[in-house]
Structure formats: C-alpha cells, structure tokens
Amino acid sequence: MPIRTTRTTVSFANPFVLQGLEGSQPAGEYVVLADDEQIEGLSRIAYRRVATLLQTPATSASQLLIQSFSISQTELDAALMKDRHQTVVRHRAQASDMARRPSRRHKCLAGITGGPEGGSKICLTRPAPALLS
C-alpha cells in the first residue's frame, strides 16, 4: 500500500510533556513527521494515519543530532491546545494588568478568530522587548 509522509513544524510557547519522551521538553519549534497509508478499495482516495514521529535534538550528543520519537497524534494535539490555552490565559492576565497600567505596551504575535457568528478575536501577546522596564 502506498504511504505518504507529511512534514510539519509545530511551535510550543511553553515547556511540554508527552508520553514516550523523557521529562519536560523546552519551548520551541519541533518537526513532526506523519506517515499515512492509503486505504485501497474505496471509491475515493483516503488515508489512515499509521505513525507520528516528533523530532528533538539529541540530549547527550556533542554534535547536532536529531532523535525521532513515536508519539500519539491525539496527545500531540492535546499538548498544543494546552500550550495555546496557557498563552491565552497569560494574555488575559496581562490585559487586566495593562488596564491598570496603560503605559505598558505589547506586541501582537497572532490573532485567532472563531465562533459560528464570526466570533471574537483573541490576540496572543508578549511584552515588546524594547519596551520592558
């Protein structure tokens, strides 16, 4: 059966933990390789996920080496959602703090819109480095 491999990059703003990985992983960008197998005998082309690998830097290597770990796609999705929730909650705390201190500025990193009616806009932020006191 034909297998396709998809390479994506995911970003974590906070340290995270996944089963199969030793300890907490630092925030940063990680490469995810997903192998999907084509399901034969259907009237349409369809694929089934057979493997998801997360690539991390080797911790004990003196050279820049990459290690690949088999992980659950569902667990990865949950960790990414948790990471984004932590960032949004942190922003809400900053927003209430900024309301008390209007001189503090921030830099918008990303906007998220949602909801069936057009939803609300949430801006994920961090203080602009040049404006920190």
- SSE ordering: EEEEHEE
Show unreliable segments.
Answer: 102-133
So what's the overall shape?
A: globular
Total strands: 6
Structural class: alpha+beta
- In spatial order, strands of the major sheet run 1-2-3-4
Describe it for me?
This protein has 133 residues and is of the alpha+beta class. The chain is 21% helix and 41% strand. It has one domain. The chain contains one helix and six strands, in the order ββββαββ. The model is unreliable at 102-133 (pLDDT under 50).
Topology:
Layout: E1 3-12, E2 28-39, E3 46-57, E4 66-70, H1 73-100, E5 106-113, E6 121-127
Antiparallel strand pairs: 1-2, 2-3, 3-4, 5-6
Task: Briefly say what this structure is.
The protein is an alpha+beta fold and 133 residues long.
Main features:
133 residues, alpha+beta, 21% helix
